[in-house]
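Dear colleagues,

As part of the handover before I leave the project, I'm documenting each prediction I ran so the next person doesn't have to rerun anything. This entry is a single chain, and its sequence is reproduced below.
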Amino acid sequence: MLSSNQSLPLITVSIPIYNCEKYIERCIGSVLRQTYSNIEILLIDDKGIDSSLHIIKKIQAEYPTKIRIIEHSKNLGLSIVRNTGIDNAKGEYIFFLDSDDEISSDCIQKLYDRASSTGATLTIGQTMAINTFSNAKYPIFKFAPSLDFIDNNNTILCNFCKGKWAVSAWNKLIKIDFIKKHKIYFVEGLFSQDELWSFHCAIKLDSITFLDEYTYYYYLHGESIIFNKTKRNFENHQTIVEYFTKAYDKQNATRKKYILNHIIKFKEITLTMQYQVMGKDINYWEINYSRLKKAPSLSLFDYFSNSFSKDIKKKNLFQNLPSSLGYKLYKWRFERT
């Protein structure tokens, strides 16, 4: 149970509430069991149609000093829910937790201890997947144990663009003043808002540290977003690439190389997922393929440079063919196995 210790900085755990009646008690319970004492639980209700709001109000009645509920007047989407959490957090730090997941009992304590000892703006822990289909547990979105503490923004951006850590917003303890100072909010309407938000953080971060311990339990189930990609998701990915491009245009030559590497990898993921989910819709795939070609890509000179790997050069080539040929090549690549 939580005890009171006002000598510790207040930490806000922000949880979105939307049609999560199956999971929300487990989620909130994991926060109430934290060994770190000075926590506020901020629940943002986004007007779902199940009993989630009734459940969280019953829990709040038991912990009125620990739990706050903010109710949206209408459904606004996860991006706005996250922003509501940022704007209403009273803590020195904020931690995003999805309503169908849970955290270890010492998650906040260990992340805070790490943040406090290093002075880092952002602290990340490891994540364990709980596969409800197979009842298996295994690491997911894992970062290299060698990652420790980085206090140089160029190095942070370089490592982020190399995919050294997960782009999820959750399982990250971050100083709220940093977010507000740089206005790093989630973009309204985007399904894959974590990807873009994490990129915007990497552009500005002055320090980051890593805790090589499992602090977050990510549940895989039939309602998980990862299993329910739709056409709207791919439209969102296109928009995210356009935001990457805007940031790319403002950087110096070295940082442009980092971001270009990231853009090429993100385009590859987008095209691959779209083919896997909607491969038979050839016309739609080719339209998005043509749209992605408008984003920055390698120049002829880059192919003779050591700044990009052979794999990135190959991916870039596959992404810049005539659309019909590009589709045939993706079909061949992903159906030959």
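The radius of gyration is 21 Å. The chain has a mean pLDDT of 91.

All the best with the project,
I.
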